[in-house]
Design brief:
With about 110 residues, this protein is an alpha/beta fold. It has helices at about 5-10, 45-60, 85-100, and strands at about 1-5, 20-25, 60-65, 70, 75-80. The longest helix is centred in the middle third of the chain and has 14 residues, at about 45-60.
């Protein structure tokens, strides 16, 4: 797994299979990096905002960076960090909202 347009995904391209990882609970900078956790606006913790962020990634293939820039993105998998406040509640909410919109969630198994 690697973030879209990341250095690691660029190096891996054509060498190993890549699944692009999107971050549900994190804001993005205009260069596709995550906002530093040292900044107040690094985390998304309101479940409605997290869902909109995820839905835009999946359905529109876009995200809104912290400066308002709209970025094109491709995601194959979504991450919610376990240390995010209310992570379980957020995951349950996202799952139910995606299910209600008939967006299929696949489980990756080894």
């Amino acid at each position: 797994y690697a973030p879209y347009k990341s250095k690691i995904s660029t190096v891996a391209k054509g060498r190993i299979p890549i699944y692009f990882e999107g971050f549900a609970d994190r804001n993005y900078e205009p260069d596709y990096t995550l906002v530093s956790r040292h900044k107040n606006n690094a985390l998304l913790i309101e479940k409605e905002a997290v869902f909109k962020h995820v839905f835009d990634m999946i359905w529109k293939q876009k995200i809104k960076a912290v400066d308002g820039t709209i970025l094109l993105i491709k995601v194959d998998t979504i991450c919610v960090h376990g240390d995010t406040p209310k992570a379980v509640e957020i995951l349950q909410y996202i799952y139910q909202k995606l299910y209600n919109k008939n967006i299929q969630i696949e489980k990756f198994e080894k």
